[in-house]
Amino acid sequence: MSAGANFYIVGRDPAGLPHPDTKVDLYSPMHGGKVLAMAPGMPQLEIIPFRVAAYDTKAKGMAFFDPARKEDFDFISGTRMRGLARAGEMPPEGFMAPAAWSVLADYYKGVGEGK
After folding, report:
1. Of the residues 24, 35, 43, 103, which has the fewest C-beta atoms closer than 10 A?
2. What is the rounded distance in angstroms from the CA atom of residue 78 to the CA atom of residue 91?
């Protein structure tokens, strides 16, 4: 099943799936790795969890999430980021390099205009 692979890097999907009523994520950030570790044919692989990064509101930049300081982190989803870009709004300071944000925002404004 692993075709010669020794390692498998696992992201946080489907952790970003919110409950429709509470808007709280249905799964923990480590859920994907836990499920894969239990999958038949996977015991020979070392599951390497993807470290979760988020916007650190205190440091004003991206950082690896620290559960002990969870109130200091803002998880900016792709949906939210695209919404900001389409609306011509700026993300929080330090979220992305301004030149990169400009390219992204121009693209999503164009998508909204049918370009």
Report:
1. 24
2. 12
Choose among 5, 14, 16, 10: nearest CA to 51.
10
Which tokens sit at 92?
């929080």
pLDDT value at residue 25:
78
CA distance 67 to 73: 9
Which residues are bridge partners to 8 per DSSP? 47
Q: What is the model's pLDDT at position 98?
A: 93
Burial of 59 (C-beta count, 10 Å sphere; 0-12/13-18/19+): exposed
Arithmetic mean of pLDDT over the chain = 82
Residue 2: predicted pLDDT: 54
Q: At 35, is the secondary structure helix, strand, or coil?
A: helix
Q: Tell me if 95 sits within 8 A of 74, measured CB to CB.
A: no
Residue numbers in the chain where pLDDT is lower than 50: none
